[in-house]
Amino acid sequence: MAGRINDDDVRTVRNAVPIDAVVSEYLQLRPGGGGNLKGLCPFHDEKSPSFHVSPAKGLYHCFGCQEGGDTVDFVMKVEHLSFSETIERLAAQAGITLRYEEGGYTPGRQQGERTRLLEAHKVAAQFYAEQLGSAEAEIGRGFLAERGFDQAAAERFGVGYAPAGWDHLTRFLRGRGFTDKELTLSGLSQDGRRGPIDRFRGRLMWPIRDITGEVVGFGARRLREDDNGPKYLNTPETPIYRKSQVLYGIDLAKRDIGKQGRAVVVEGYTDVMACHLSGVTTAIATCGTAFGGEHVKILRRVLTDNSRSEVVFTFDGDAAGQKAALRAFEDDQKFAARTSIAVSPGGMDPCDLRLAKGDEAVRQLIEERSPLFEFAIRSFVKQHNLDTAEGRSAALEQAAPVVARIKDVSIQHDYAVRLGGMLGILDERFVTNRVRQLARYAAQGGAGRGRGGQGQAQVRGGVPPQAGPGAAGPRQSGPAPAGGAAGGPALYMRTPALHRERELLKLALQHPKLVAPAFDAYLADEFTAAPYATVRAAIEAAGGVAAAADSAAYLARVRDAAPDDGVRSLITELAVEPPRSRREPDAIYAGEQLAGVRLAAVDRRIDDVRSTVHRLGAQGPPDRFESAQRELWTLQQYRESLRARGAAAL
């Protein structure tokens, strides 16, 4: 049975790895105000960033899908790991040696499956890289040299060689403690007549890494004529490798993609190498599959997808390349970024272009790109005989929808005019009207689908979700505490009392010193929303704001005190959401929130006591009537004091 990781070591790991450093391995982060960072959420598809990270608090929260938590929660969710696997992974990054209880630590027995498979691939990548220097691998070195790649280039990209024997890697990994089951599950070995044998034999090897730099698979290139296998053989689908969810070179390119706001999509491993060595360090490639929706999601998060960013596709000039380019055009609308295409005049790919004309030619190829929709329009027009009326009509009906999809209306009109010229249609207004008609039809169809489909799906419990942090309007605050409705009660953000309550709780979590010690005297029933009252109770259970000496530890105590995941998610949201104050929150702002929440509670109590006085005045006992009147007078005096003096009257 696997040992339990020592609690002190778990706390050490939680505090050792900054959350922004971990999250930035998966998506591009930008300043989000209030010391926060923001980016596109990795847990749901979105076009504007609603995913916020608070480095000071060690927490993240998405205001779109309500996912939130700390560093460990993030890695668990994004990598689909268990708690122990996540701690082991973060500990390895931080160089922390973990202690295990209940029998001690036995490597290979107590590591999670994913951790073991990643370790096997790491060892395999080192083995292949070392083999590239062997005498047998001369054919592989020759292949690289013919394409302009020297030893330094091979080392930079981790290129290696798989020996031609049946089980060289299998025996090596067995010697390192890996089981036959792990080797076949990883895809590094496959079943043979007498047990596992190497999957890759006599081939040049490219390690395929995920966005964090972990080796998750390999691409293997055929070298010998007697090899009857496919030209490229990739790792099969495994628990850690999904070809539709990886991009070769993304680990090397992600930072420059974020900085430059541009990603270059090429077709193969050698094209990625050629681009990077030529100075185009934003190049990536798919791994044995067409560029698709899952690749779009990865790229958009790294790119911080917006109208100022750009995705450049490079394809061979042959028919297959043009077909691939048109497939890419189908994904154009999934990007807010501009999409372009770069095709060299001779139809050469970046690797051949670099070999023939040098690094500058590769850079020039990317700089001379053209809009992808222009390429698509010309490709469709070429398919028809424009010498006949029927051909021109068919070309218009195929190309006009492409023009109608152009986001910028002014550019759309310009290309409608140009389309008329390509087709030889003299009536310019006929073509532009047709394009506008198709664009209007598409917009109306999209709006209708949104109202009847997606729009309804986004409404939970009859209340639409909040658009973003601090937005006015009704919203859902996640699952309710025990006794609440499933999905959580509706919190109407336009109610001033709830504005104050939410702000006060945010200050209590983010700036506890500003509201201490007054906040600790507030009762849970001073918060009218049930989830807010439960958050207040969690703060009290964690020792209150007066005990918040260390921000990270304090927030961890509050989150641990939450009765369920719904409240824990709300605490994370409140700890990350920026205050509504236009300035940095200070004692004056905190005092306004403290006084506002208390004043609203006093007003509610006055209404209750007035009702009691009215009821008792007619037929109640005199002593109770007089007591209620005294309480009413006291409350009214307190209310006037709060109005006049604010927080000083607390």
Structural write-up:
By secondary structure, this protein is α+β, with helices and mostly antiparallel strands. It folds into 5 domains: 4-101, DNA Primase, Chain A, CATH 3.90.580; 113-241, Alpha-Beta Complex (DNA primase DNAg catalytic core, N-terminal domain); 250-373, Dna Topoisomerase Vi A Subunit, Chain: A, domain 2, CATH 3.40.1360; 383-444, Pheromone ER-1, CATH 1.20.50; 491-645, DNAb Helicase, Chain A (Orthogonal Bundle). 51% of the residues lie in helices and 12% in strands. It contains 26 helices and 20 strands. It has a 5-stranded antiparallel sheet. The chain has a 5-stranded mixed sheet with strand order 15-14-16-17-18, with helices on both faces. Strands 8-11-12-13 form a 4-stranded antiparallel sheet.
Mean pLDDT: 83
- By DSSP (H or I, 4+ residues per run), the number of helices equals 26
Percent strand: 5-15%
Supply the helix-strand structural class: alpha+beta
Across the major sheet, the strand order is 2-3-4-5-6
Second-tier CATH architecture of the largest domain: Orthogonal Bundle
CATH topology of the largest domain: DNAb Helicase, Chain A
Q: What is the multimeric organization of the chains shown? A: single chain
The total number of structural domains is: 5
Cα Rg: 31 Å
**Helix proportion range:** 40-55%
Number of β-strand runs: 20
Low-confidence stretches: 104-110, 446-494
CATH class of the largest domain: Mainly Alpha
Distance between the termini: 56 Å
